[in-house]
Amino acid sequence: ISGDADTASTFNGSATVPGTTTGWISAPQTFTVEAWFKTTTNRGGKIIGFGSSSSGNSATNDRSVYMDNSGRIRFGATRTTVLTSGTGYNNGQWHHVVASMGPSGIRLVLDGNQVGANSSIKTAGYYWGYWRVGGDQLSSWPSRPTSNSFAGTLDEVAVYPTELTVAQAANHNALGRGAAGNVAPTASFTASASGLMASVNGSASSDADGSVVSYAWNWGDGSAAGSGVSATHTYAAAGTYTITLTVTDDDGATGSTTRSVTVTAPPSNVAPVASFSASSSGLVASVDGSASSDADGSVVSYAWNWGDGSAAGSGVSATHTYAAAGTYTITLTVTDDDGATGSTTRSVTVGTPPGNSPFVQDAFGRTVSSGWGSADVGGAWTVSGTASNYSVSGGEGRISLTAGGGRTASLSSVSQSSADVTARLSLDKAMTGGGVYMSVIGRQVNSSNDYRLKLRVQSNGSVTAQLVRVVAGSEAVIQTVATVPGLAVAAGDGLQVRFQVSGTGTTALAAKVWKSGTAEPAAWLLESSDSTAALQASGAVGLWAYLSGSATNAPVVLSVDDLDARPV
Length: 568
Hints:
By secondary structure, this protein is mainly β. The protein has four domains: 9-176, Jelly Rolls, CATH 2.60.120; 190-263, Immunoglobulin-like (Sandwich); 277-350, Immunoglobulin-like (Sandwich); 360-566, Jelly Rolls. Strands 28, 30, 31, 33, 38, 39, 40 and 42 form an eight-stranded antiparallel beta sheet that branches. Strands 2, 3, 5, 6, 7, 8 and 12 form a seven-stranded antiparallel beta sheet that branches. The relative contact order is 0.09. The model has no long low-confidence stretch (mean pLDDT 93).
């Protein structure tokens, strides 16, 4: 062809094997053959094809491009389905043929134009052989020409292991005729990720001899392709994906490139922490939840359950008027900007009659790292043993218990003969071994003599309650409920306790325990009296706890909140 430095080959149409490849190969299932040809023959002949033999006529042959006697070009992967051009390609001019087979089917392109295609033909025979140029067996092929061998000139014969597109074939045709061929575009893009979303920008893509007219994005996850210069895609799962950008220019040529992008699942939302203060005046309770917080966002709503069956309140702060005097459990539930919730409870006593002001009150709103500091009402706390086993934070007084170890905290400056003591108790872990013992001390005459409500939380969560007197350091049980009906305690559950001690000479004792967030029982769980002489005097208020020596999950932390003591 014109402008080509090497020479063409002329065939006389009589050679049995005009040209063949030297290597014996497996017949390809994806290929493109290409050739330039010039002839005036009216006897036809094979231009290029695949056959089982490198000499003589092949017993097996297919993948054939040939000319019939009328100058038509025919191509078939097999002889069953053959693509056919119009006549006149034997006019003595140079013509360009490109024939291909692969996943898109078979295609015949002549002089840069597609003249036939069939998408259903994707495979041909499976055997070993040779590419034959200029002649081979054409027996039984449609419109079989007079000659198996081609009489004419062939140039630039090529075999490719891929399917050439029509645009590529047209570009080769233009180059062979001395025209400047289309230069394929260059794909280029940037990619970034935020959580599960990938963002891509292909504006850096270019076309040296024209313009990029379309962008196609393959996200690498089997989803539908994206389009446009820039695009975003949200993946279903975290991982590393290969994104492919394919750009097409104004002449139909394409270019592709890939990049890997790693996307990650967003962090799990952290639930908000509810916290509030409560006070009362007469029958009116006032609450303030502004101490509530959300570590990864903001608190967007506050809901107040007043504990008396009335409609819930709302807002950061609120007030509520109760119908009757008593002690109520208020629950604050806060919701964050991702819909997660957190709750906490406090007890409030309203309608205190004259002369019934508390002599002990402690909401533990301070922070103390060693010991308990001083109560809101009632003076300084005295603790037994190592002070570092006691601390105050987060609105709770905490006692850290080790297996076989007992702890006592007392308000020794208090001295009362009549005490109605309420408190909220909770444990940070489920019980093991023999469980944990905890007591509310209603009258502590001295360090060796007291009345107490003693609770035992066992490993199955059940609760035993006892009225106990301690004299000269020795315990004696006054009354027992072996298993508190309907009460089971898990880690973090709050227990509300109420213990009354009143009178001297003969002391009246009464106690009840119930789960935080539920109504206070109307009846006393335990009720008795005692006349032990050593205990018929005024005393202090305190708490005691002991972790069983057989416990296996020490340390266990007992938390105390909303401690209140006032005359019966």
